[in-house]
Design a protein that fits this description.
This protein is α+β, with helices and mostly antiparallel strands and 401 residues long. Helices cover 40% and strands 18% of the residues. It folds into three domains: 122 residues, Topoisomerase II, domain 5, CATH 3.90.199; 72 residues, no CATH class; 87 residues, Gyrase A, domain 2. The strands form six sheets. It has a four-stranded antiparallel sheet, covered by helices on one side. Strand 10 and strand 11 form a beta hairpin.
Length: 401
């Protein structure tokens, strides 16, 4: 056996270099750059296109591959691989999860990715692996990328300085309000609910016509959030206060009907609150019944529930809560609102990046920030066309001379 270069009994001392410095300097030198990177490059969306960097890079990768709505689907793994190798070196799951989210119609008010295959469900089922699913751009994503090649936006180097990527997308509609956003950074977080596309565009048009429009006038057009899963919205704080400060709370209640058949009532859930897992909701109702019976015995209110049947299909949600004969459906429903996710709350925290580390908490400020971008892009396009025209004119003169 070969002898070790170092005797086993020999004690090895590794000198450690200890740096001593004031904590305020350490935070400035190490923590602040890290926090800035997380805020700008990971967690919070830009106001111009409403996208986080990973979402923007996915759409740009699909744009490079010419994956238009009228074209064919391509394997998800192809897009993930290209995006990782060229623009987003952060792990394949982060890219694929973001792409799956953009394809889920129960999470996005208007999807940006058209998915083919298993992309998960509202019951919490996970999407299939990227090698099985296929994607292409949804029609609305094309509007975010339109005129990208006409010098409309600024371009920056990618992570290894070998390619360039758009700093933001041109964005023909206010995606930040339409599809909302959720993100947690360091010391900052954002929760922006989804809104109706037509209402938001009408609101921007009203602002263009009258830049001095008041918040009260704007709220007659954009009446509040509009969630992909439906439900009824009740503001705990007034909408005027929520959209003035960018913070507030709303209650979201399921859309429910009560059916009568043979003297028995059935509570039918047609729509559930945003981001509620339907499978988990059924478990919550069963658990609430068990706890009520355990506490109150035969006198338990939820003892009147005989069965919970998920009758949902491709036409929509239908969750039937069967009751015993003579039970009061309204009383049971009010109890379930308190104990389950048939009713939930959502807190607004409107924070977006408008420029380097400038955060906007006001809907008017968001609208006024989107408008200059919309106005600037055609100007940049005209400047490009004028430059090309002048170049062609010089070429023609040279040719004829």
């Amino acid at each position: 056996m070969a002898k070790n270069n170092i005797n086993e009994n020999e004690e090895i001392v590794v000198a450690a270099k200890v740096l001593e410095q004031p904590i305020e300097k350490a935070i400035h030198d190490y923590m602040m750059p890290y926090a800035e990177s997380v805020i700008l490059d990971r967690a919070l969306p830009r106001v111009e296109d409403g996208l986080k960097p990973v979402q923007r890079r996915i759409l740009y990768t699909m744009h490079e591959l010419n994956m238009r709505p009228e074209g064919q689907y391509k394997k998800s793994a192809r897009i993930v691989g290209d995006c990782l190798g060229k623009y987003h070196p952060h792990g394949d799951s982060s890219v694929y999860d973001a792409m799956v989210n953009m394809a889920q119609d129960f999470g996005m008010r208007n999807v940006l990715v058209d998915g083919n295959g298993n992309f998960g469900s509202i019951d919490g089922d996970p999407a299939a692996a990227m090698r099985y699913t296929e994607v292409k751009m949804a029609p609305l994503a094309v509007e975010l990328l339109k005129d990208l090649d006409k010098d409309t936006v600024n371009w920056v180097n990618n992570f290894d300085d070998t390619l360039q990527e758009p700093e933001v997308l041109p964005g023909r509609f206010p995606n930040i309000l339409v599809n909302g956003a959720q993100g947690i950074a360091i010391g900052l977080a954002t929760t922006i609910p989804t809104h109706n596309l037509t209402e938001v565009i009408d609101g921007v048009v009203a602002y263009i016509d009258n830049p001095k429009i008041t918040l009260e006038e704007l709220l007659t057009i954009v009446k509040g959030p509009d969630f992909p899963t439906g439900g009824f919205v009740t503001p705990v704080d007034s909408f005027e206060e929520i959209y003035r400060t960018g913070r507030g709370k709303i209650m979201i209640r399921s859309t429910i009907s009560i059916e009568n058949e043979g003297g028995k009532q059935t509570i039918v859930v047609h729509e559930i609150p945003y981001l509620v897992n339907k499978g988990r909701l059924q478990v919550q109702i069963k658990e609430a019944k068990e706890k009520d019976i355990e506490k109150n015995g035969k006198n338990a209110l939820l003892n009147g529930i005989t069965d919970i049947i998920d009758e949902s299909d491709r036409n929509g949600i239908r969750l039937a809560i069967k009751l015993k004969k003579g039970e009061d459906a309204q009383k049971i429903l009010e109890y379930l609102y308190k104990k389950t996710s048939l009713q939930t709350s959502m807190s607004y925290n409107i924070m977006v990046i408008a420029s380097v580390l400038v955060l906007l908490p006001l809907i008017i400020a968001i609208t006024s920030s989107i408008f200059p971008s919309i106005k600037e892009y055609p100007s940049n396009m005209c400047a490009l066309f004028l430059l090309l025209f002048k170049s062609n004119l010089v070429l023609l003169k040279t040719t004829f001379l």
